[in-house]
Amino acid sequence: MSAETTTTTSTAANTMNTATTPTDTETSTATATDRSDRFRAELTRLRIRDPRTRLDAQLLRLGVVLMALGILLAVFGYTISHATTNPLQQRDALNMSLIGVCVTVTGTALFLRYSLTGFLRFWLARILFEQREQHEQREQREQREQREQREQQACLAERGGAC
Asked: Is the dihedral of CA 44, 47, 50, 51 positive or negative?
């Protein structure tokens, strides 16, 4: 009977402790939310624009369309040049294929530029934000160490070396 009472008491105590203290996931969620809010505020302060603007999205799509169109144009020109024996038509088809390759390269450049720009912009902002946080934490640690050192010196001076 006393073992059951002890188990019930310890279970009730654990329940009370769990209810009053936040769990690790709640703490990490609150910390992550706080950190993301600070990061958004920092982005606003640095005036970093959102990469999801209408023009950027349109140019990204244009790059994809140009890549596909250029490949189709090059393949179509290649097949025409091999399907005929007329040298004039073959040269025209080869020129069309060359134009297709140029369009593909242009589309690839547009796609890469507008797909990587947003990523790299936020990557750089995140690095700057984290470095600033590390710098602030280092300063706080140094201030704390200096304060503890002053308190230690004051204690030694007050008690004559018995701290």
From this structure: negative
Nearest to 110 by CA among 53, 58, 71, 48: 58
**Polymer length in residues for the chain:** 163
- Residue 9's φ and ψ, nearest 5 degrees, are -65, -45
Q: What is this structure's pTM?
A: 0.52
Model confidence pLDDT, tens digit, residues 101-132: 999 999 999 999 988 887 887 788 888 888 88
Residue 77 near residue 94 (C-beta atoms within 8 A): yes
Q: Which residues contact 136 (CB under 8 A, 6 or more apart)?
A: none
Residues of the chain above pLDDT 90, percent = 41
Asked whether 72 and 126 are in contact (CB, 8 A), the reply is no
